[in-house]
Amino acid sequence: MKLILRISTIPLMITFLQDLKEGKASTDQLADLFHHPDYLFEFSRYGVPVDDTIIEYFFRLNRMNEANIPELSSERKNMLKDKHQLWLRAYENPQKYRVLYDDIMGFATEENIQAVIKRCKNGLPNGVDLGDVNIISTMSIGMSFGYVFDNALHFDMMQLNDIADLLPLIAHETHHLAMWRFVSTFIDELTLEERYIFSFSGEGLAIKFCNNAQGRFSKAIDSGAPVNEGLDAFSMDYLNSRFDQDWVIFEQTLADIHTGKMTKDDVFEQLNAYWWNPYTEEQSKGDRPLLKQSKMYTFGNDLYGSIYDAFGKEALFDCIRHPRKAVECFRSIHKV
């Protein structure tokens, strides 16, 4: 396994921010930067074009009134607004990111590679090949800290608070890539009900095995290591405390799918609106989201992580392959 770092846009963006401070930046400089393959990867993932709106926003970053920050597509309406304060901090102190860039450059040591392999393999079926991993990092245009897309993983260096957080992040996203190679062999065979149950496994298992997550029921893998490593403490506490109400919605959804009351579109809408929702119940949609993780993470950790704790890896991946078994196993453990 090799970790292939692609981070060459970071010093270019730092230079742009420094030039902007000194009144030397140009829109051509910015346009060239955003047409770099690594930024085009990002724009493609977020589904927004490199156009005059984006260029003008970044060129006027230091003079932009937050109320006048442009909206993008309906799905990415507040993307620039949500990230604005982070960009202003980067503008004020670009040197901070030069230091962090040097730290990232030194990450792909043999020790770190072996640590990534160990975390991932603990949470994968035997025989799954991790392969080489393309790791792209930019000073990101979006709010996702880490994601997988187009057979590569990306992380936003602007949200990397501590270089120590990079190990669980890389392991987490590498786990996604490897899991997809496993599930792609059977995912098309699953019914709508099975796919709904299965959908919680990706983030749930990634935080279980790669972030040492502690759930409401699911236990941290390594009792001697920090729990919820690389995860947001507020988000995890908030979401773990809401398991009971999430279970009610989960079971009602299974019943509605079974009776035909909920269609594929209904399920997709619920997953996006409820399970991936980054807002607390107290927030409105106009607020800046407070949650760094969502219910998909914590509910999936409790559902599938409990099965691993009680029955081991073989039973866990039998439940991944046959998702209805996951619900039966969880009910048998916790009598919910």
Using the alpha-carbon principal axes, give the shape. Answer: globular
Task: Report the C-alpha radius of gyration, rounded.
Answer: 21 Å
**Could you give the order of the helices and strands?**
EHHHHHHHEEEHHHHHHHHH
Low-pLDDT stretches: none
Q: Give me the number of helical elements.
A: 16
How many strands? 4
Helix/strand-derived category reads: mainly alpha
Widest beta sheet: strand line-up: 1-2-4-3
For the biggest sheet, the summary is: 4 strands, mixed
Number of domains: 2
Distance between the termini: 41 Å
Strand residue percentage: 5-15%
Helical percentage? 55-70%
> Which whole number gives the mean pLDDT?
94
Describe it for me?
The protein has 336 residues and is mainly α. The chain folds into 2 domains: 1-185, no CATH class; 188-334, no CATH class. Helices cover 56% and strands 6% of the residues. It contains 16 helices and 4 strands. It has helices at residues 9-21, 27-34, 37-46, 52-59, 79-92, 94-105, 110-122, 166-183, 192-198, 201-210, 233-240, 243-259, 264-275, 295-311, 313-321, 323-334, and strands at residues 3-6, 133-138, 146-149, 152-156. Strands 1-2-4-3 form a 4-stranded mixed sheet, sandwiched between helices. Helix 15 packs across helix 16 (323-334). The two termini are 41 Å apart. The model has no long low-confidence stretch (mean pLDDT 94).
Summary, kept brief:
With 336 residues, this protein is mainly alpha-helical.
Question: Keywords for this structure?
Answer:
4-stranded mixed β-sheet; single chain; 2 domains; 16 helices; 336 residues; mainly alpha
